[in-house]
Design a protein that fits this description.
The protein is α+β, with helices and mostly antiparallel strands. It is 30% helix and 29% strand.
């Protein structure tokens, strides 16, 4: 059976505090795009993981891969052969590894006919795992443990662009000027224009720190913002993938073509925002 692992996109991300154990508290509007990786899962006597595809280089096939840890989280001795077809940039701020683990969790639960592991077990794998296991639009708060529904996401299109330079998550958080910022405004929109107005009052608190460490992030944001039809340009997660928001599919596709022609070493994709789980 094949399962889609859609890219996780933070349309807004506020850093609202820091716990005593060092974990940062976040408040984020998370959506998913119709571009991503694919997971193929078959019954087997033991866990085995292989990786192929255009973005397979450097992706581990042992327990350090979140897909493997997702399988272990079920606490069973059942096996599965898992093949990961990798298309998303590794460590790109769009939840590639977490999206893969989320798809693996859904697939293994179906294969083994068992419920998903408990929420605490999902968080042990990674902060983005609960939202990626659901793969539906949500307001994600805390350390990723609080997921709240949001108003229906209207039709929107994205251009995702990554300069091919890894942005180190730890140093980005350590470089933050403030870790006690206001939360997101209460989600309230009924159409695309309403959502865009809401997004205009939000931000990604990690953006400036990421640009200071990796100036290429700023280059991508400037290039996205200069394309015709782009209504908002912002970094996703801790980078380095950035996003442009569009209200017209053809404008998004044209912008993606333009960026790819101008920056051939970048990873660029136009994608629709998924309005529900795949």
């Amino acid at each position: 059976m094949k399962y889609f692992a859609p890219a996780k996109v933070n349309l807004a991300l506020h850093v609202t505090g820091r716990r005593g154990d060092g974990y940062h508290l976040l408040d984020s509007l998370v959506v998913f795009a119709d571009v991503g990786d694919w997971i193929d899962i078959r019954a087997s006597r033991e866990i085995a993981l292989s990786v192929s595809g255009p973005r397979a280089a450097g992706v581990p096939t042992d327990r350090s891969n979140l897909v493997w840890r997702a399988a272990e989280a079920f606490g069973t001795d059942r096996g599965a052969t898992i093949r990961l077809d990798k298309h998303l940039p590794h460590a790109g701020g769009i939840g590639g590894g977490s999206a893969d683990a989320g798809a693996a969790l859904r697939g293994l639960a179906e294969l083994w006919r068992v419920p998903l592991p408990a929420p605490d077990a999902l968080l042990d794998i990674g902060a983005d795992i609960p939202v990626c296991a659901a793969s539906a639009p949500a307001r994600m708060r805390g350390i990723g443990d609080m997921l709240d529904p949001v108003p229906p996401i209207p039709p929107l299109w994205l251009v995702l662009a990554n300069p091919g330079v890894e942005v180190p998550t730890g140093p980005v958080f350590r470089a933050l000027a403030s870790t006690d910022n206001p939360p997101l405004p209460e989600p309230d929109w009924s159409d695309a224009e309403g959502l865009l107005r809401w997004l205009a009052d939000t931000r990604n608190d990690l953006e400036h720190a990421a640009m200071a460490l990796v100036p290429e992030v700023g280059t991508v944001l400037d290039a996205l913002g200069a394309t015709d039809g782009c209504r908002l340009a912002r970094m996703s997660g801790s980078g380095g993938t950035c996003l442009g928001v569009f209200t017209e599919a053809e404008a998004a596709r044209a912008a993606a073509r333009h960026l790819q022609e101008a920056h051939r070493h970048w990873w660029v994709e136009a994608a629709a925002v998924l309005t529900r789980a795949p």
